[in-house]
Here is the input.
Amino acid sequence: MTAIAVTIAGSDSGGGAGIQADLKTFSALGVYGASVITALTAQNTLGVQGIHDVPPGFVAQQIDSIFSDLAVDAVKIGMLSRPAIIEAVAEGLERHRATQVVLDPVMVAASGDRLLAPEAVDALRNALLSKALLVTPNLPEAAALLDEPMASDERAMRRQAERILALGPKAVLVKGGHGAGTESTDLLLDARGVRRFTAPRVDTRNTHGTGCTLSSAIAAGLAKGLPLADAVAAGKSFISAAIGASSQLQIGRGHGPVHHFYAYWP
Here is the structure.
């Protein structure tokens, strides 16, 4: 059977993040990708110039179209900017009994532009976290979900992961890419305990779409049948290599994208 993953997220007109990054990641990892578009963005490497939300009813219709025909193995969720869209997605997941759900709580773009309305944070906590197999916040997103300061060390990262886990997901991956030091360390917390995933920190401006790419790489691993920890390890390896190869691309004048096809392009 062909492994199938669906991304439920916003479109990035610049091609480096969102739906575009997710579909590139699925393809690079040998998984067939379908998509549910929740928002259109006018966006490039310099920032987000505009956001046009898709009506919640049409988001629900896209979900029903895909799940009524395709045998979806995993779901990745990205940008959901409004409470009504979050509720439509939560209801769709419930309706189709989706279980292998990776939720990337996208709140701010690499440029610093906000992608999630403040009033939507409560909806994300209350309606969607409990539907997720895995939630993948970076340090600022974990702090925003909990309404507390950003973690400054691994002990604080673990405490925040424990608090997010208590909100209902089965596992939490707190990503340390916004931290300091020579290594980027992510902490995975679930019922089995804590596991660390580390990689050398790469000094680059090409960080556009890193969170989208990691979460979709994990979803791709789940779609291919990997256990959660193995999917996280494979996803960490993929995003680290994609960031490391990003200097091979000359895209835009701001925060450039990672290189999703580093293994295939000369």
Remarks:
- Helices lie at 18-28, 56-67, 83-95, 120-128, 139-146, 154-165, 210-223, 228-244.
